[in-house]
Amino acid sequence: MSGAVIDAAAPALPARSGTGRPAGTFRPSLPVRRLALRAGALGLGLLAWHLAASYRLDLGLVTFRNVPTPLDVARATAALAQSPKLGAHVGASLVRVLSGFLLALAAGVALGLAIGRSRTARDLLLPPLEVLRPIPAVAWIPLAILMFPSSELSMVFITFTGALFPILLNTVHGAEGASPRLVASVRSLGAGRSAILREVVIPAAAPSIVTGAAIGMGTAWFCLVTAEMISGQYGIGYFTWESYTLQNYDDIVVGMLLIGLLGMGSSALVRAAGGLAMPWARAGVRS
Description:
Blueprint: H1 2-9, H2 30-54, H3 70-81, H4 85-117, H5 119-132, H6 137-147, H7 151-176, H8 180-188, H9 193-231, H10 236-245, H11 249-277, H12 279-282
Helix pairs in contact: 3-11, 4-5, 4-7, 4-9, 4-10, 6-7, 6-9, 7-9, 8-9, 9-10, 9-11, 10-11
């Protein structure tokens, strides 16, 4: 009887739609507002660039006397888009980045899971990896040229080293964060090590792995461009460096923008693929 009284006295909760909001309520289009805000931020950046380059602004420590205007860069971009060199440069860079990234993803996840779940693997693998981690990509270039028979393999290796450590460290963090209670519960039901790894540890570490992969993709582009400036014949980094040596200042900015767009787009693809692989995590994501 008391339960019926409580139920009758309790206020009725509004029905909720599939989006989680009360049915019949109106919510302003937040993505449109955010898109307009981001577009405005880009517009302000372009305006500041245009004014600084047009008036040859000299701030003492920073000068814009030789910096091309956005209109000059747009003309150079249109000219490059009509040139067959664009496909060769972009294609070479994409192949190198993808090869190094996939190798780093496989090695980083495997090593990260081992280090995160095994004290023996942590003691054996983590110290040498921590010694190698702070070494910049530029320092690897001479040794990579000596180690590998071709410049292509050396550039893939440099890309691999750049992407490896963000993936590795994030995987270690995710594997260590697997719930001990959940692991103990699954073990009490008779699960072996492989089943625990497959059913508990990897799903728990997946968000961290995706984050590390997205960071590693951006780092791979940074390292690849550095390598291409020194030992490449094709690629966005080589194009940017060649433009500097030939004093084609417009093309320098074009190369920089291409690097930024390709890096941003590839990182977004990694995050999107990770979201598709983790349906349990997408529900809690708020853009």
